[in-house]
Design brief:
Layout lengths: L1 H12 L8 H39 L5 H29 L7 H41 L5 H48 L1
Keywords: Membrane, Transmembrane, Transmembrane helix
Length: 196
Amino acid sequence: MKDFDHLMTVWQGQPKKEHLQVDEVLKQAKKDIRSITSKLYWAIVTMIATLAGAFILMFFMAFKSPATTIGIFIIVITIAMYLYLIVRHYHILNKHDLTQNPIDYLDSLKEYQKTRTKTVGWFYYIYILLLSAGLGLYFIEILENASVAFKIVTYGFTFIWFMFTTFYLKPRMFKNEEEKLNLMIDRLERLQGQFD
């Protein structure tokens, strides 16, 4: 009997699962999604402006070296690929309304998280390599008459910037977004579990 009483107190002492409020979870999920889609929206606007600027530079500037034009073309292709990727991610997040069909919405969030994790990893490095190659070719003619010191500073600063974004900014940005998505998915799954 003593063991049963001890077992009963241990069982009753277990923390109770928090019962989620539907309105609060949905409000927070909408807020988090709005934050992510807003960032994606402004990234799309920025990429379109950058793409337009690169097109104008490529078609309306007269360059002596074909390497410069090839460099700008590589940059344009790279930006267009990145633009396609973020438009696709934006579309996935805006495809379903959370209040209409939460199960479809949860599935679309999981799809977004899976594709984002998969593509961000390998694509980012391809993106950086192509941008570096494009800028390297572009700088050949642009820095042709510059001093050696200025060339070293320009190439060095560009290299340091790419290293900084690759190994410092990228992991922090994507980790933050990943944590938000994990928390949102966890809340929605727990909420769904309450009604099953």
